[in-house]
Protein backbone atom coordinates (compact mmCIF):
# COMPACT_ATOMS: atom_id res chain seq x y z
CA UNK A 1 0.00 0.00 0.00
CA UNK A 2 1.18 3.51 -0.90
CA UNK A 3 2.49 5.72 1.90
CA UNK A 4 0.49 8.95 1.61
CA UNK A 5 1.86 10.64 4.77
CA UNK A 6 3.78 13.33 2.89
CA UNK A 7 0.81 14.12 0.66
CA UNK A 8 -1.52 14.28 3.64
CA UNK A 9 0.92 16.72 5.24
CA UNK A 10 0.54 18.87 2.11
CA UNK A 11 -3.25 18.59 2.39
CA UNK A 12 -3.04 19.88 5.98
CA UNK A 13 -0.69 22.73 5.02
CA UNK A 14 -2.97 23.76 2.19
CA UNK A 15 -6.08 23.61 4.38
CA UNK A 16 -4.55 25.62 7.22
CA UNK A 17 -2.95 28.32 5.08
CA UNK A 18 -4.96 28.70 1.85
CA UNK A 19 -8.66 29.56 2.06
CA UNK A 20 -10.79 27.86 -0.67
CA UNK A 21 -11.64 30.12 -3.65
CA UNK A 22 -15.42 29.95 -3.13
CA UNK A 23 -15.06 31.29 0.43
CA UNK A 24 -12.69 34.05 -0.57
CA UNK A 25 -15.06 35.09 -3.38
CA UNK A 26 -17.95 35.24 -0.90
CA UNK A 27 -15.88 37.45 1.43
CA UNK A 28 -14.99 39.74 -1.46
CA UNK A 29 -18.68 40.08 -2.31
CA UNK A 30 -19.44 40.80 1.34
CA UNK A 31 -17.02 43.75 1.41
CA UNK A 32 -19.12 45.44 -1.26
CA UNK A 33 -22.24 45.05 0.88
CA UNK A 34 -20.78 47.04 3.77
CA UNK A 35 -20.69 50.84 3.87
CA UNK A 36 -17.27 52.47 3.43
CA UNK A 37 -15.81 53.73 6.69
CA UNK A 38 -17.64 51.23 8.90
CA UNK A 39 -15.97 48.83 11.32
CA UNK A 40 -17.76 46.02 9.44
CA UNK A 41 -16.13 46.87 6.14
CA UNK A 42 -12.76 47.44 7.73
CA UNK A 43 -13.00 44.02 9.44
CA UNK A 44 -13.68 42.30 6.11
CA UNK A 45 -10.83 44.16 4.44
CA UNK A 46 -8.49 43.05 7.22
CA UNK A 47 -9.76 39.48 6.83
CA UNK A 48 -9.01 39.50 3.09
CA UNK A 49 -5.55 40.95 3.66
CA UNK A 50 -4.90 38.18 6.16
CA UNK A 51 -6.10 35.52 3.72
CA UNK A 52 -3.64 36.75 1.08
CA UNK A 53 -0.80 36.98 3.57
CA UNK A 54 -1.37 33.49 4.96
CA UNK A 55 -1.35 32.06 1.45
CA UNK A 56 1.81 33.94 0.52
CA UNK A 57 3.73 33.06 3.69
CA UNK A 58 2.27 29.58 4.11
CA UNK A 59 1.24 30.42 7.68
CA UNK A 60 -2.06 29.52 9.37
CA UNK A 61 -5.00 31.74 8.39
CA UNK A 62 -6.25 31.48 11.97
CA UNK A 63 -4.19 30.49 15.02
CA UNK A 64 -7.00 28.17 16.09
CA UNK A 65 -6.40 25.38 13.63
CA UNK A 66 -9.25 23.57 15.34
CA UNK A 67 -10.18 19.94 15.27
CA UNK A 68 -8.80 18.28 12.15
CA UNK A 69 -11.82 16.47 10.67
CA UNK A 70 -10.94 13.92 7.98
CA UNK A 71 -13.39 12.07 5.73
CA UNK A 72 -11.67 9.32 3.80
CA UNK A 73 -13.36 7.58 0.85
CA UNK A 74 -11.20 4.59 0.01
CA UNK A 75 -11.55 1.97 -2.74
CA UNK A 76 -11.52 -1.71 -1.80
CA UNK A 77 -8.12 -2.97 -0.69
CA UNK A 78 -6.87 0.05 1.26
CA UNK A 79 -6.16 -0.64 4.93
CA UNK A 80 -8.00 1.87 7.10
CA UNK A 81 -5.66 0.99 9.96
CA UNK A 82 -2.63 2.03 7.88
CA UNK A 83 -4.41 5.11 6.53
CA UNK A 84 -5.13 6.15 10.10
CA UNK A 85 -1.44 5.76 10.99
CA UNK A 86 -0.47 7.87 8.00
CA UNK A 87 -2.97 10.59 8.86
CA UNK A 88 -1.80 10.66 12.47
CA UNK A 89 1.82 10.88 11.46
CA UNK A 90 1.03 13.73 9.02
CA UNK A 91 -0.92 15.57 11.73
CA UNK A 92 2.00 15.32 14.18
CA UNK A 93 4.40 16.52 11.49
CA UNK A 94 2.14 19.42 10.53
CA UNK A 95 2.14 20.46 14.19
CA UNK A 96 5.94 20.35 14.31
CA UNK A 97 6.00 22.56 11.17
CA UNK A 98 3.65 25.08 12.90
CA UNK A 99 0.92 24.58 10.28
CA UNK A 100 -1.23 23.38 13.15
CA UNK A 101 -1.36 24.58 16.74
CA UNK A 102 -1.12 21.79 19.33
CA UNK A 103 -4.80 21.52 20.17
CA UNK A 104 -5.47 18.14 21.78
CA UNK A 105 -6.09 18.60 25.51
CA UNK A 106 -6.76 15.71 27.90
CA UNK A 107 -10.19 16.47 29.36
CA UNK A 108 -9.27 15.13 32.81
CA UNK A 109 -5.68 16.24 33.39
CA UNK A 110 -5.83 19.36 31.18
CA UNK A 111 -2.54 18.30 29.62
CA UNK A 112 -1.95 19.27 26.00
CA UNK A 113 -0.48 16.31 24.09
CA UNK A 114 1.67 18.74 22.09
CA UNK A 115 1.27 16.98 18.75
CA UNK A 116 -2.49 17.11 18.06
CA UNK A 117 -2.86 13.40 18.74
CA UNK A 118 -5.25 12.33 21.43
CA UNK A 119 -7.68 9.45 21.54
CA UNK A 120 -9.47 7.76 18.63
CA UNK A 121 -11.64 10.87 18.16
CA UNK A 122 -8.73 13.34 17.93
CA UNK A 123 -8.06 13.91 15.09
CA UNK A 124 -11.55 13.03 13.92
CA UNK A 125 -11.29 10.46 11.11
CA UNK A 126 -14.21 8.87 9.21
CA UNK A 127 -13.77 6.09 6.67
CA UNK A 128 -16.12 4.94 3.94
CA UNK A 129 -15.33 2.29 1.36
CA UNK A 130 -16.38 3.31 -2.13
CA UNK A 131 -16.48 1.76 -5.61
CA UNK A 132 -13.83 2.55 -8.23
CA UNK A 133 -10.10 3.17 -8.02
CA UNK A 134 -9.91 6.74 -6.70
CA UNK A 135 -9.15 7.56 -3.08
CA UNK A 136 -10.42 10.89 -1.77
CA UNK A 137 -9.54 12.59 1.51
CA UNK A 138 -11.54 15.61 2.64
CA UNK A 139 -10.19 17.72 5.48
CA UNK A 140 -11.90 20.45 7.46
CA UNK A 141 -10.27 22.50 10.23
CA UNK A 142 -12.94 23.83 12.56
CA UNK A 143 -11.91 26.16 15.37
CA UNK A 144 -13.22 26.18 18.93
CA UNK A 145 -14.80 29.64 18.93
CA UNK A 146 -17.31 28.71 16.25
CA UNK A 147 -17.71 25.17 17.58
CA UNK A 148 -18.77 26.64 20.93
CA UNK A 149 -21.69 28.55 19.40
CA UNK A 150 -23.14 25.48 17.69
CA UNK A 151 -26.54 24.40 19.01
CA UNK A 152 -28.99 21.54 19.01
CA UNK A 153 -32.75 21.98 19.35
CA UNK A 154 -35.38 19.37 20.09
CA UNK A 155 -38.69 20.26 18.47
CA UNK A 156 -41.27 21.31 19.43
CA UNK A 157 -39.72 24.28 21.23
CA UNK A 158 -42.46 26.28 22.90
CA UNK A 159 -40.22 29.20 23.94
CA UNK A 160 -39.61 29.94 20.26
CA UNK A 161 -43.01 28.77 19.05
CA UNK A 162 -41.25 26.23 16.85
CA UNK A 163 -43.22 23.16 15.77
CA UNK A 164 -42.14 19.97 14.03
CA UNK A 165 -42.02 21.31 10.49
CA UNK A 166 -39.78 23.48 8.32
CA UNK A 167 -41.36 26.63 9.73
CA UNK A 168 -40.20 25.48 13.17
CA UNK A 169 -36.78 24.59 11.80
CA UNK A 170 -36.44 28.13 10.43
CA UNK A 171 -37.20 29.64 13.83
CA UNK A 172 -34.62 27.67 15.79
CA UNK A 173 -31.93 28.32 13.18
CA UNK A 174 -32.52 32.08 13.40
CA UNK A 175 -32.36 31.78 17.19
CA UNK A 176 -28.99 30.01 16.91
CA UNK A 177 -27.60 32.81 14.73
CA UNK A 178 -28.88 35.43 17.17
CA UNK A 179 -27.32 33.62 20.15
CA UNK A 180 -23.99 33.28 18.35
CA UNK A 181 -23.79 37.09 17.82
CA UNK A 182 -20.21 37.75 16.64
CA UNK A 183 -18.66 35.12 18.91
CA UNK A 184 -18.24 32.46 16.23
CA UNK A 185 -16.25 34.87 14.04
CA UNK A 186 -19.00 36.16 11.79
CA UNK A 187 -19.70 36.20 8.92
CA UNK A 188 -20.33 32.51 9.42
CA UNK A 189 -21.56 29.59 7.39
CA UNK A 190 -24.24 27.36 8.89
CA UNK A 191 -24.22 23.61 8.60
CA UNK A 192 -27.66 22.33 9.58
CA UNK A 193 -28.99 18.81 9.97
CA UNK A 194 -32.69 18.10 10.41
CA UNK A 195 -33.40 14.74 12.02
CA UNK A 196 -31.12 11.94 13.17
CA UNK A 197 -30.38 11.15 16.80
CA UNK A 198 -28.37 13.62 18.84
CA UNK A 199 -25.05 12.18 17.66
CA UNK A 200 -25.79 11.58 13.98
CA UNK A 201 -27.53 14.94 13.78
CA UNK A 202 -24.40 16.81 14.83
CA UNK A 203 -22.29 14.69 12.45
CA UNK A 204 -24.72 15.54 9.66
CA UNK A 205 -24.47 19.24 10.43
CA UNK A 206 -20.69 19.07 9.95
CA UNK A 207 -20.71 16.79 6.90
CA UNK A 208 -22.95 19.22 5.00
CA UNK A 209 -20.25 21.87 5.42
CA UNK A 210 -18.10 19.97 2.91
CA UNK A 211 -20.47 21.24 0.21
CA UNK A 212 -19.12 24.28 -1.63
CA UNK A 213 -20.77 27.63 -1.00
CA UNK A 214 -21.79 27.96 -4.65
CA UNK A 215 -23.16 24.41 -4.84
CA UNK A 216 -26.97 24.52 -4.52
CA UNK A 217 -28.92 21.96 -2.50
CA UNK A 218 -30.24 19.14 -4.70
CA UNK A 219 -33.54 19.32 -2.83
CA UNK A 220 -35.45 22.32 -4.22
CA UNK A 221 -37.33 23.02 -0.99
CA UNK A 222 -34.13 23.01 1.07
CA UNK A 223 -32.33 25.08 -1.58
CA UNK A 224 -34.97 27.80 -1.20
CA UNK A 225 -34.79 27.57 2.55
CA UNK A 226 -31.00 27.94 2.55
CA UNK A 227 -31.26 31.19 0.58
CA UNK A 228 -34.09 32.51 2.73
CA UNK A 229 -32.29 31.76 6.00
CA UNK A 230 -29.07 33.46 4.88
CA UNK A 231 -31.05 36.54 3.85
CA UNK A 232 -33.07 36.62 7.08
CA UNK A 233 -30.01 36.07 9.26
CA UNK A 234 -28.38 39.01 7.51
CA UNK A 235 -31.34 41.18 8.49
CA UNK A 236 -30.35 40.64 12.14
CA UNK A 237 -27.60 43.21 11.61
CA UNK A 238 -24.99 41.39 13.70
CA UNK A 239 -22.41 41.84 10.96
CA UNK A 240 -18.75 40.89 10.62
CA UNK A 241 -17.21 40.21 14.06
CA UNK A 242 -20.52 41.29 15.59
CA UNK A 243 -19.65 44.93 14.85
CA UNK A 244 -23.07 45.49 13.26
CA UNK A 245 -23.50 45.34 9.50
CA UNK A 246 -25.14 43.59 6.58
CA UNK A 247 -23.14 40.36 6.49
CA UNK A 248 -23.85 37.99 9.35
CA UNK A 249 -23.81 34.81 7.27
CA UNK A 250 -22.06 33.90 4.02
CA UNK A 251 -24.26 30.88 3.49
CA UNK A 252 -26.44 28.11 4.89
CA UNK A 253 -26.19 24.39 4.12
CA UNK A 254 -28.96 22.04 5.18
CA UNK A 255 -29.19 18.26 5.15
CA UNK A 256 -31.92 15.92 6.29
CA UNK A 257 -31.58 12.60 8.10
CA UNK A 258 -34.11 9.99 9.08
CA UNK A 259 -35.27 10.37 12.66
CA UNK A 260 -37.17 8.40 15.28
CA UNK A 261 -40.90 9.09 15.52
CA UNK A 262 -40.36 10.62 18.97
CA UNK A 263 -37.35 12.78 18.09
CA UNK A 264 -37.09 15.87 15.92
CA UNK A 265 -33.62 17.36 16.28
CA UNK A 266 -32.26 20.37 14.48
CA UNK A 267 -28.48 20.65 14.82
CA UNK A 268 -26.59 23.74 13.85
CA UNK A 269 -22.84 23.74 13.34
CA UNK A 270 -21.55 27.28 12.98
CA UNK A 271 -18.47 27.62 10.81
CA UNK A 272 -16.41 30.78 11.11
CA UNK A 273 -15.46 32.85 8.04
CA UNK A 274 -12.12 30.96 8.10
CA UNK A 275 -13.94 28.08 6.45
CA UNK A 276 -10.94 25.83 5.92
CA UNK A 277 -11.73 22.74 3.91
CA UNK A 278 -9.71 21.05 1.18
CA UNK A 279 -9.74 17.79 -0.77
CA UNK A 280 -7.01 15.43 -1.93
CA UNK A 281 -7.65 12.99 -4.77
CA UNK A 282 -5.37 10.00 -5.34
CA UNK A 283 -5.65 8.10 -8.65
CA UNK A 284 -2.74 5.72 -9.12
CA UNK A 285 0.41 7.84 -8.86
CA UNK A 286 -1.39 11.10 -9.52
CA UNK A 287 -2.29 13.32 -6.57
CA UNK A 288 -4.52 16.31 -7.01
CA UNK A 289 -5.63 18.94 -4.47
CA UNK A 290 -8.85 20.94 -4.63
CA UNK B 1 -6.43 55.76 13.96
CA UNK B 2 -5.28 56.47 17.52
CA UNK B 3 -1.80 55.31 18.52
CA UNK B 4 -1.78 53.95 22.06
CA UNK B 5 1.35 53.10 24.02
CA UNK B 6 1.43 50.43 26.72
CA UNK B 7 1.42 50.99 29.68
CA UNK B 8 -1.68 53.05 28.98
CA UNK B 9 -2.35 56.29 30.86
CA UNK B 10 -5.75 57.08 32.40
CA UNK B 11 -5.92 60.07 30.10
CA UNK B 12 -5.59 57.84 27.03
CA UNK B 13 -8.17 55.39 28.37
CA UNK B 14 -10.72 58.10 29.12
CA UNK B 15 -10.21 59.58 25.66
CA UNK B 16 -11.22 56.30 23.98
CA UNK B 17 -14.77 55.69 22.83
CA UNK B 18 -16.62 52.75 21.34
CA UNK B 19 -15.88 52.60 17.61
CA UNK B 20 -12.37 54.09 17.80
CA UNK B 21 -9.78 52.26 15.74
CA UNK B 22 -6.44 52.08 17.55
CA UNK B 23 -2.98 50.59 17.26
CA UNK B 24 -1.17 49.34 20.33
CA UNK B 25 2.58 49.50 20.89
CA UNK B 26 4.41 48.10 23.90
CA UNK B 27 4.41 44.91 25.95
CA UNK B 28 1.38 42.63 26.23
CA UNK B 29 0.81 39.37 28.06
CA UNK B 30 -1.37 36.61 26.61
CA UNK B 31 -3.74 34.83 28.95
CA UNK B 32 -6.86 32.81 28.40
CA UNK B 33 -8.86 30.11 30.13
CA UNK B 34 -6.22 28.29 32.18
CA UNK B 35 -4.35 31.50 33.02
CA UNK B 36 -7.47 33.30 34.29
CA UNK B 37 -8.50 30.32 36.40
CA UNK B 38 -4.98 30.12 37.84
CA UNK B 39 -4.81 33.85 38.65
CA UNK B 40 -8.22 33.87 40.31
CA UNK B 41 -7.77 30.70 42.36
CA UNK B 42 -4.15 31.25 43.43
CA UNK B 43 -3.83 35.00 43.96
CA UNK B 44 -7.24 36.63 44.04
CA UNK B 45 -9.60 34.23 45.82
CA UNK B 46 -6.65 32.28 47.23
CA UNK B 47 -8.52 29.00 47.32
CA UNK B 48 -5.46 27.17 46.01
CA UNK B 49 -2.01 27.42 47.57
CA UNK B 50 0.76 28.68 45.28
CA UNK B 51 2.79 25.79 43.91
CA UNK B 52 6.19 25.46 42.24
CA UNK B 53 7.25 28.79 40.73
CA UNK B 54 3.78 30.39 41.04
CA UNK B 55 4.95 33.18 43.36
CA UNK B 56 7.98 33.96 41.23
CA UNK B 57 5.77 34.25 38.16
CA UNK B 58 3.28 36.40 40.04
CA UNK B 59 6.08 38.84 40.94
CA UNK B 60 7.23 38.94 37.32
CA UNK B 61 3.71 39.46 35.97
CA UNK B 62 2.66 42.29 38.30
CA UNK B 63 4.76 45.06 36.73
CA UNK B 64 3.96 43.80 33.23
CA UNK B 65 0.22 43.91 33.85
CA UNK B 66 0.02 47.16 35.84
CA UNK B 67 -1.43 49.68 33.42
CA UNK B 68 -0.91 46.98 30.84
CA UNK B 69 -2.80 44.79 28.44
CA UNK B 70 -3.89 41.17 28.60
CA UNK B 71 -4.49 39.49 25.28
CA UNK B 72 -6.93 36.58 24.91
CA UNK B 73 -4.84 34.61 22.46
CA UNK B 74 -3.54 31.09 21.96
CA UNK B 75 -0.84 31.53 19.35
CA UNK B 76 0.84 29.22 16.87
CA UNK B 77 4.49 29.47 17.85
CA UNK B 78 7.55 28.40 15.85
CA UNK B 79 10.89 27.58 17.46
CA UNK B 80 9.47 25.52 20.30
CA UNK B 81 12.36 23.05 20.14
CA UNK B 82 15.11 25.71 20.26
CA UNK B 83 13.17 28.17 22.49
CA UNK B 84 13.89 30.80 19.85
CA UNK B 85 10.19 31.61 19.83
CA UNK B 86 8.39 33.36 17.01
CA UNK B 87 4.63 34.02 16.71
CA UNK B 88 3.43 32.60 13.39
CA UNK B 89 -0.30 33.12 13.84
CA UNK B 90 -1.78 35.04 16.73
CA UNK B 91 -5.37 36.22 16.41
CA UNK B 92 -7.74 36.67 19.35
CA UNK B 93 -9.80 33.93 20.99
CA UNK B 94 -13.41 34.36 22.18
CA UNK B 95 -13.36 36.54 25.28
CA UNK B 96 -16.72 35.72 26.81
CA UNK B 97 -15.33 32.63 28.55
CA UNK B 98 -13.30 34.94 30.79
CA UNK B 99 -16.34 37.02 31.78
CA UNK B 100 -16.63 35.39 35.24
CA UNK B 101 -12.98 36.30 36.02
CA UNK B 102 -11.95 39.30 33.97
CA UNK B 103 -13.22 42.16 36.15
CA UNK B 104 -11.50 40.81 39.28
CA UNK B 105 -8.29 40.09 37.38
CA UNK B 106 -8.31 43.65 35.99
CA UNK B 107 -8.82 45.13 39.46
CA UNK B 108 -6.16 42.98 41.12
CA UNK B 109 -3.44 43.61 38.53
CA UNK B 110 -4.62 47.12 37.52
CA UNK B 111 -4.97 46.02 33.90
CA UNK B 112 -6.17 48.81 31.60
CA UNK B 113 -6.72 46.99 28.35
CA UNK B 114 -8.27 43.64 27.51
CA UNK B 115 -7.81 42.49 23.92
CA UNK B 116 -9.89 39.68 22.48
CA UNK B 117 -12.87 39.05 20.25
CA UNK B 118 -16.62 38.70 20.57
CA UNK B 119 -16.92 41.16 23.45
CA UNK B 120 -17.61 40.68 27.14
CA UNK B 121 -20.50 41.21 29.53
CA UNK B 122 -21.65 43.56 32.29
CA UNK B 123 -19.08 42.48 34.91
CA UNK B 124 -16.17 43.42 32.68
CA UNK B 125 -17.92 46.59 31.54
CA UNK B 126 -18.30 47.63 35.19
CA UNK B 127 -14.60 47.00 35.80
CA UNK B 128 -13.76 49.12 32.74
CA UNK B 129 -15.66 52.04 34.26
CA UNK B 130 -14.08 51.58 37.67
CA UNK B 131 -10.39 51.17 36.83
CA UNK B 132 -10.69 52.79 34.15
CA UNK B 133 -10.05 50.39 31.28
CA UNK B 134 -11.23 49.40 27.82
CA UNK B 135 -12.02 46.27 25.86
CA UNK B 136 -10.30 46.19 22.50
CA UNK B 137 -11.58 43.96 19.72
CA UNK B 138 -9.01 42.43 17.41
CA UNK B 139 -10.12 40.86 14.13
CA UNK B 140 -10.90 37.21 14.77
CA UNK B 141 -9.09 34.86 12.44
CA UNK B 142 -6.72 37.51 11.10
CA UNK B 143 -3.93 35.55 12.70
CA UNK B 144 -1.11 35.78 10.17
CA UNK B 145 -1.61 39.53 9.83
CA UNK B 146 -1.72 40.17 13.58
CA UNK B 147 1.39 38.02 14.11
CA UNK B 148 3.27 40.54 11.96
CA UNK B 149 2.73 43.16 14.65
CA UNK B 150 4.42 40.93 17.24
CA UNK B 151 8.02 42.09 17.04
CA UNK B 152 9.49 39.80 19.64
CA UNK B 153 8.58 37.12 22.13
CA UNK B 154 10.20 38.28 25.38
CA UNK B 155 9.38 35.17 27.38
CA UNK B 156 6.78 32.65 28.41
CA UNK B 157 5.27 31.58 31.73
CA UNK B 158 3.14 28.56 32.66
CA UNK B 159 4.24 26.48 29.68
CA UNK B 160 2.72 23.50 31.51
CA UNK B 161 -0.69 24.87 30.43
CA UNK B 162 0.30 24.00 26.84
CA UNK B 163 1.29 26.35 24.00
CA UNK B 164 -2.15 27.93 23.44
CA UNK B 165 -2.83 28.48 27.16
CA UNK B 166 0.64 29.60 28.30
CA UNK B 167 1.23 33.25 29.22
CA UNK B 168 3.41 34.72 26.49
CA UNK B 169 5.09 38.07 27.04
CA UNK B 170 5.27 39.84 23.69
CA UNK B 171 6.51 43.14 22.34
CA UNK B 172 4.04 44.50 19.81
CA UNK B 173 4.19 47.40 17.41
CA UNK B 174 1.08 48.91 15.81
CA UNK B 175 -1.16 46.04 16.87
CA UNK B 176 -4.58 46.83 15.29
CA UNK B 177 -7.83 46.79 17.30
CA UNK B 178 -11.17 48.55 17.70
CA UNK B 179 -12.58 49.82 21.01
CA UNK B 180 -15.89 48.02 21.52
CA UNK B 181 -16.33 48.59 25.29
CA UNK B 182 -15.15 51.86 26.85
CA UNK B 183 -14.61 53.36 30.29
CA UNK B 184 -17.81 55.38 29.97
CA UNK B 185 -20.13 52.38 30.17
CA UNK B 186 -20.71 51.97 26.45
CA UNK B 187 -20.64 48.54 24.80
CA UNK B 188 -21.03 47.96 21.07
CA UNK B 189 -21.83 44.31 21.86
CA UNK B 190 -24.75 45.18 24.13
CA UNK B 191 -26.07 47.56 21.47
CA UNK B 192 -25.82 45.06 18.58
CA UNK B 193 -27.38 42.34 20.71
CA UNK B 194 -30.32 44.55 21.63
CA UNK B 195 -30.97 45.66 18.06
CA UNK B 196 -30.69 42.14 16.67
CA UNK B 197 -33.10 40.87 19.33
CA UNK B 198 -35.77 43.26 18.05
CA UNK B 199 -35.27 41.98 14.48
CA UNK B 200 -35.29 38.36 15.67
CA UNK B 201 -38.60 38.88 17.47
CA UNK B 202 -40.14 40.29 14.28
CA UNK B 203 -38.81 37.39 12.20
CA UNK B 204 -40.08 34.82 14.70
CA UNK B 205 -43.50 36.42 14.70
CA UNK B 206 -43.89 35.87 10.95
CA UNK B 207 -44.87 32.29 10.07
CA UNK B 208 -42.28 31.82 7.28
Question: TL;DR?
Answer:
The complex is a heterodimer of chains A (290) and B (208). Chain A has 290 residues and is an alpha+beta fold. Helices cover 37% and strands 21% of the residues of chain A.
Distance, first to last CA of chain A: 23 Å
Distance between the termini of chain B: 44 Å
Class of secondary structure makeup of chain A? alpha+beta
Number of strands of chain A: 9
Overall geometry of chain B comes to globular
**How many beta strands in the DSSP annotation of chain B?**
9
Helix content of chain A: 25-40%
Total domains of chain A, how many? 2
What is the domain tally of chain B?
Answer: 1
Strand order of the largest sheet of chain B: 2-3-6-7-9
Mean pLDDT of chain A: 97
CATH C-level name of chain B: Alpha Beta
Q: What's the arrangement of secondary structure elements?
A:
The complex is a heterodimer of chains A (about 290) and B (about 210).
Chain A (H helix, E strand, L loop, with lengths): L4 H13 L3 H13 L5 H19 L9 E9 L4 H17 L27 E7 L4 E8 L1 H5 L2 E4 L11 H15 L7 E7 L3 H10 L12 H16 L13 E8 L8 E7 L4 E8 L2 E4 L1
Parallel strand pairs in A: 1-2, 5-6
Antiparallel strand pairs in A: 1-3, 3-8, 4-7, 5-7, 8-9
Chain B lengths: L1 E4 L4 H6 L5 E10 L2 H12 L9 H12 L3 E3 L4 E3 L7 E4 L9 H11 L3 E4 L5 H9 L3 E4 L5 H5 L2 E8 L9 E15 L6 H18 L3
Helix pairs in contact in B: 2-4, 4-5
Amino acid sequence: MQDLSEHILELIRLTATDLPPDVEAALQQAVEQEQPGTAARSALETILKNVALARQDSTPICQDTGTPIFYVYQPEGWSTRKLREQIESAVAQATAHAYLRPNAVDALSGKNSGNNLGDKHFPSIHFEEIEGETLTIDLMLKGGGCENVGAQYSLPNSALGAGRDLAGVRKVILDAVYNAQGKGCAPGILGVAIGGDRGSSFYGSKEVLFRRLDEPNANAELATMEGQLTAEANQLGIGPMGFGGNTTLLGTKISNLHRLPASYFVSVSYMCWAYRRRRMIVSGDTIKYE
Amino acid sequence: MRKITIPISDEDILGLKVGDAVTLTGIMVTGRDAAHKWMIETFIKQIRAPQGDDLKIYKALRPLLEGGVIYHCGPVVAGLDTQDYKFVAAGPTTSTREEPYQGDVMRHFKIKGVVGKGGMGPKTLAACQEIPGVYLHAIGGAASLIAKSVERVLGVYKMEFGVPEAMWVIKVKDFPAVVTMDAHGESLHAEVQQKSKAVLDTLLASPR
